[in-house]
Amino acid sequence: MTEDLDARLRSLGASGDADALIDLGCDLADAGRHAEAEQCFRRAAERGDTVAAFNLGNALAAQQRWEEAVDAYEIALAGGEADAWRNLGLVLEDLGDLAGAMRAYRGAVDAGDLEGGLQLAFLLREQGERDEALAVAREIAAAGDDEAAAVVACWTYCTTLDPGLEPDLRAGAAHFPAARTDLAHLLRETGRPEEARWVLEVGAKRGEQVSWLPLGNLYREELGDDEAAEEAFRAGIAAGDVYCHQNLAVLLADRGDLDGAVEQFRLGAEAGDQLAAQTLRGLELG
């Protein structure tokens, strides 16, 4: 594959064939060779190709050259490449321009990009605009997006704890990991811990980070299996869930491993878990 890409690079030379340059740039990007992909896209974009400008933005974003990526996306949009709206929004989020990101995501919605609309819903929710976020997610779900429907079920359940949402959460579990954990919570609350365990274990096997913490809690609280709980918490930590440090620390403390517990509280605090930080301060003061 590498030799083929190198041969194509050599053969194109100073070619002005925009389509060939874009095809090669896409293959280079797929191979992780973003700087070389950038050069291909740039050459095609200089010939006025808006698809190339869009892909140039992607190559620049992959190199974390955010401001340059914004410029490329705006050129693509000016040329009518509506697919650039969502990616522009993502880059503007990375730059901290949340108002600009919202405008870009709204542009994606207007262009019929359902995934871009869902990004708008997520950003609105992060900014505390929960009612508006839910309204946007419902609009996207009504357009036929399965992930948006799962998000609506999840957010509604978090607010209402309505057991009548079980069918919606079941349908959404495969599309939005938090819908799976909410389904497991509902199952526990309605006296079905074994099914809840199965639901969470499926999520864990699928690599869904959010399944590990509630799975560990279920092992401890419902099944009395501290060994399985410890494995789940450690797996969650390995997957990047910093809140598992706190729960693992409590388990270790209950077992009498105070040094291990303090270490986990410290790691959780360093990762930004306020509860772990509070517990650690209490231990240090005590």
What report would you give on this structure?
77% of the residues lie in helices and 0% in strands. The protein contains 18 helices and no strands. It has helices at 2-12, 18-30, 34-45, 50-62, 66-78, 84-94, 98-110, 114-126, 130-142, 146-160, 166-172, 177-189, 193-205, 212-221, 226-239, 244-255, 258-270, 274-285. Helix 9 (130-142) runs antiparallel to helix 10 and helix 15 runs antiparallel to helix 16 (244-255). The model has no long low-confidence stretch (mean pLDDT 93).
Largest sheet: none
User: Uncertain spans, ≥5 residues at pLDDT below 50?
Assistant: none
Helix content: over 70%
Strand % is: under 5%
Mean pLDDT: 93
Helix and strand pattern: HHHHHHHHHHHHHHHHHH
Compute the CA-based radius of gyration.
24 Å
Helices, by number, come to 18
Number of strand segments: 0
Termini gap: 61 Å
Instruction: Report the structural category.
Output: mainly alpha
The coarse silhouette is globular
Describe, in short, the structure shown:
The protein is an all-alpha fold. The chain has helices spanning 2-12, 18-30, 34-45, 50-62, 66-78, 84-94, 98-110, 114-126, 130-142, 146-160, 166-172, 177-189, 193-205, 212-221, 226-239, 244-255, 258-270, 274-285.
Key features of this structure:
single chain, 286 residues, mainly alpha, 77% helix, 0% strand
